[in-house]
From TrEMBL:
Coiled-coil zones: none
Name of this protein: BTB/POZ domain-containing protein KCTD3-like
SUPFAM superfamilies with a match to the protein in the record: POZ domain, WD40 repeat-like
Domain of life: Eukaryota
UniProt cross-references to PANTHER family, sorted A to Z: BTB_POZ DOMAIN-CONTAINING PROTEIN KCTD3, SETA BINDING PROTEIN 1
One of the Pfam families matching this protein, by short name: BTB_2
Gene Ontology annotations of biological process type: protein homooligomerization
SMART domains membership: WD40
All copies of domain Potassium channel tetramerisation-type BTB, residue ranges: 18-62
Matching InterPro entries: SHKBP1/KCTD3, SKP1/BTB/POZ_sf, T1-type_BTB, WD40/YVTN_repeat-like_dom_sf, WD40_repeat_dom_sf, WD40_rpt
């Protein structure tokens, strides 16, 4: 009965009188039953494991049946969460010398309102969504000679060079930044190429101002109204955040500084940016994570501001600027010392305080009590959850990897926020988890089976029809250059997030011996955090002239 399938392990063993010892009795039992009865009993057996066993023994009819069972769970059209697919661009250059970065894959996806920008190694593409026509490509940048590391998008520019209907997109590599203006019809033009003089770590817009920061202690600002690029030296920067028109900088000397970009203040004596010290950590620890929450009571002058920050020693502190303490600065509100590694991320929202440290993305969360919108001490913040967002690091990752694979949390501060978990660097699956509890909201898997190379979560405005609300979407960039979209608003599954079995199954595809650490996608990565902190304590001396592209403006 075991030899009715030609070319199987058992047929050949019978011909050559070989001795058979089953590898896995649990998996072999249904195989033996199939060979005897030609019937398949799947009770208590993992289909994937059984298929591997059947392939090993060469049981072709059984392998085909199991493949069909697995295909029933997969679809090239995705699940109910799948929202759309943007095909790869057709302009990738395959010629030239071997490059460090694959020119085909999407490095970073960023969004603003109803626009997204996809950054490839040497160009960017902007897409816009309209209710009637869906997602449409509206801009493609010229080919760049350097590999893009950061990207920023502003879909609502006020006071731009061509009016209020401008959109702006910027990209950076090492110390160089290139900025384009996109008109309402989709035509784009280069505004200029600027130099920060040192490697750019963060690139973003605050209103109509483009801001670039470096951990070495430089801030570059381009003003859309004055068309002026200005570089400012400050203390070495270890974190930053924005709120309204405010830019807040956490520095290695334990101080939090701020700049009001709406006023764009310049000192009269030297025309430098007015950088004001807001608070100094009582332990003099470096401010490694920063989060600002503007309460409903905040006025134009920012009378009521709440700031949460994390330090290099693992402390989490909350400071509050009350209306009656405007003259004396913020007051220390709460301190938590639950982390033993540097805090790499922090988020203060309406209902929760979330912190992440360098120990395998260990997350601690607290509930926040508010009275009339303002943080309250009665009963105060209470512990809520403790969990980890395991995310392995590429052995030789490009500088764009941390930007494109940031775990979050994503979402508005007055709504539920989520973490995006990418367990291993090369995978086609992501887990979406609540930032407050770690529970799984859903998992997404690439509809075409390609590896996910980057991701982001954005809120897009809904239909113009009455009662329509904005919806949250997960955008995933892929190794083949495509972009796939997932509707997180529709996600209803609240199962808790990857089980031990699922985690081990994913880790089977990854060689842990080549991974530098378990948390690749924190910016900066834990593997380089301590070296950066040491580096920022010394005076930065540039090793050479910055590499530039095109014309430069200073």
């Amino acid at each position: 009965t075991l030899t009715w399938i030609p070319d199987s392990f058992f047929s050949r063993s019978f011909l050559f009188y070989k001795i058979f010892i089953d590898r896995d009795p649990t998996a072999f039992a249904p195989i033996l039953n199939f060979l005897r009865t030609k019937e398949l009993d799947l009770r208590g057996v993992n289909i994937s494991i059984l298929r591997h066993e059947a392939e090993f023994y060469g049981i072709t009819p059984l392998v085909r049946r199991l493949l069909l069972c697995e295909e029933l769970e997969r679809s090239s059209c995705g699940s109910v969460l799948f929202h759309g697919y943007l095909p790869p661009p057709g302009r990738v250059r395959a010629d030239g010398p071997q490059r460090l970065v694959d020119p085909r894959k999407v490095l970073i996806v960023a969004g603003h309102h109803n626009w997204i920008v996809a950054a490839y190694a040497h160009f960017v593409i902007c897409y816009r969504i309209k209710e009637s026509s869906g997602w449409q490509q509206v801009f493609s940048s010229p080919y760049l000679d350097w590999a893009i590391e950061q990207v920023a998008l502003n879909a609502k520019v006020v006071g731009g060079p061509h009016g209020d209907k401008d959109k702006m997109v910027a990209a950076s590599s090492e110390s160089s930044i290139i900025l384009w203006s996109i008109q309402d019809g989709g035509s784009g033009s280069e505004i200029g190429v600027f130099s920060l003089g040192v490697p750019v770590d963060s690139l973003f817009f605050i209103g109509s101002q483009l801001v670039a920061t470096s951990h070495t202690g430089k801030v570059g600002v381009w003003n859309a109204v004055t068309q002026h690029w200005q570089v400012q030296d400050v203390v070495p920067i270890t974190s930053c955040d924005t709120a309204g028109s405010f830019l807040l900088l956490g520095c290695n000397n334990g101080s939090v500084y701020y700049i009001d970009m709406q006023k764009f203040p310049l000192r009269m004596k030297d025309n430098d940016l007015l950088v004001t010290e807001l608070y100094h950590d009582p332990s003099n620890d470096a401010i490694t994570a920063l989060s600002v929450y503007l309460t409903p009571k905040t006025s134009v002058s920012g009378n009521w501001i709440e700031i949460a920050y994390g330090t290099s020693s693992g402390a989490v502190r909350v400071i509050v600027q009350h209306p009656e303490t405007v003259g004396s600065g913020p007051q220390l509100f709460q301190t938590f010392t639950v982390h033993r590694s540097p805090v790499t991320k922090i988020m203060l929202s309406e209902k929760h305080l979330v912190s992440v440290c360098a120990d395998n993305n260990h997350v601690r969360t607290w509930t926040v009590t508010r009275f009339r919108g303002m943080i309250s001490t009665q009963p105060g913040s209470t512990p809520l959850a403790s969990f980890k967002i395991i995310s392995l690091e590429e052995t030789e990752s490009h500088s764009s990897y941390s930007s494109g694979n940031d775990i979050g949390p994503f979402g508005e501060r007055d709504d539920q926020q989520v973490f995006i978990q990418k367990v291993i660097p090369v995978t086609n699956k992501l887990f979406v988890r609540l930032s407050s509890t770690g529970k799984r909201i859903c998992e997404v898997q690439a509809v075409d089976g390609t590896s996910i190379t980057c991701f982001t979560v954005r809120e897009c405005e809904g239909s113009s029809r009455m009662g329509s609300r904005p919806r949250h979407y997960l955008f995933t960039g892929h190794a083949n250059g495509s972009i796939q979209m997932w509707d997180l608003t529709t996600a209803m599954d609240t199962v808790g997030g990857p089980t031990e079995e699922e985690l081990l199954k994913l880790l089977d595809q990854c060689d842990l011996s080549t991974s530098r650490c378990a948390t690749p996608n924190i910016s900066p990565a834990p593997s380089v955090l301590h070296s950066r902190l040491r580096e920022s304590c010394s005076r930065y001396c540039p090793a050479g002239e910055p590499r530039t592209v095109g014309r430069e403006q200073h």
